[in-house]
């Protein structure tokens, strides 16, 4: 598991991470979300011991990663897919990493197959597309079969098929009981991949919650259609609901959840044709949560 405690990182006068605390547990994918410059990469680098915190600490399985005796077996990370020696072949790049960590050649072949690069193992990395470099970075992260995985923007440069593949890969790694932390700018992507999300802005934690809880919190109303709208509205209002009648028909019900509406309609002998709980989109929820912490915004852009 990953534990970040009161982590602070300053670069000169800039505060990149500001007393950030959270825990990432095994068994599910945790999304790490925030606008540009929010401090996601800095936090990940601190977890990996690549950046020394100004104060606070970041631990993996209770200790500093830099002190791990078997680093690649403990943690796999994809930080910057472009940081690869272009003159090497994909297989050679992984072999160099494998050798310095006591990992055999067979594992290199296995991870190249796993990420779909088996056919280009002997090709130079310089000719790879961004998506192929992402896959190679993921292969490197998986090389030591680690318990903890950190991915910084892994879907960058991937096409829709690649995005679906990485989504399924991350979920399967979590299902195997691993700890998976993945950063993203996109709530819509995380809603499909992650179970929990940590939202940061200007180096601070804004929200630490599950996707399910976030959907509940931003629940707007329940939309109901019935051949007997009027009578249904009366029954629901008698139970304390606030009922609006949209111009296109149906009822917008506030203050009662879908199961209760269904029970009341059933009790009154009223037929329902539609019963739909509606939430603000998670993307809207995310924009609202991070609105105050967006550092770079185009002139005239909505806020
Ligand atoms: N090496 C550095 N020197 C100076 N400032 C830095 C350095 N690394 C990061 N920063 C600053 O720290 C803040 C956090 O940056 P960081 O890259 O961690 O954010 P991020 O959430 O990963 O952003 P993005 O989504 O754009 O990658 C930014 O204001 C950035 O300019």
Characterise this structure.
Keywords: ATP-binding, Nucleotide-binding, Transport. This is ATP-binding cassette domain-containing protein. The chain is α/β, with parallel strands linked by helices and 303 residues long. The chain has two domains: 2-215, P-loop containing nucleotide triphosphate hydrolases (Rossmann fold, 3-Layer(aba) Sandwich); 220-279, YebC, transcriptional regulation domain (Alpha-Beta Plaits). Helix content is 34%, strand content 26%. The protein is built from eleven helices and 13 strands. A six-stranded mixed beta sheet has the order 5-6-7-3-8-9, sandwiched between helices. A hairpin with a 6-residue loop joins strand 11 and strand 12 (251-254). Helix 3 (90-99) packs across helix 4 (105-114) and helix 4 crosses helix 5. The radius of gyration is 24 Å and the shape is elongated. The chain starts with a strand and ends in a 13-residue tail after the last helix. Adenosine-5'-triphosphate binds at residues 11, 14, 16, 34, 36-42, 185.
Mean pLDDT: 89
Instruction: Provide the number of structural domains.
Output: 2
> In CATH terms, what is the fold-level topology of the largest domain?
Rossmann fold
Global structural class: alpha/beta
Write the CATH homologous superfamily of the largest domain.
Answer: P-loop containing nucleotide triphosphate hydrolases
The level of helicity is 25-40%
How many whole angstroms does the radius of gyration measure? 24 Å
Order of helices and strands: EEEHEHEHHHEHEHEEHEHEEHEH
Family: Belongs to the ABC transporter superfamily.
InterPro entries: AAA+_ATPase, ABC_transporter-like_ATP-bd, ABC_transporter-like_CS, P-loop_NTPase
GO molecular function: ATP binding; ATP hydrolysis activity
Protein name: ATP-binding cassette domain-containing protein
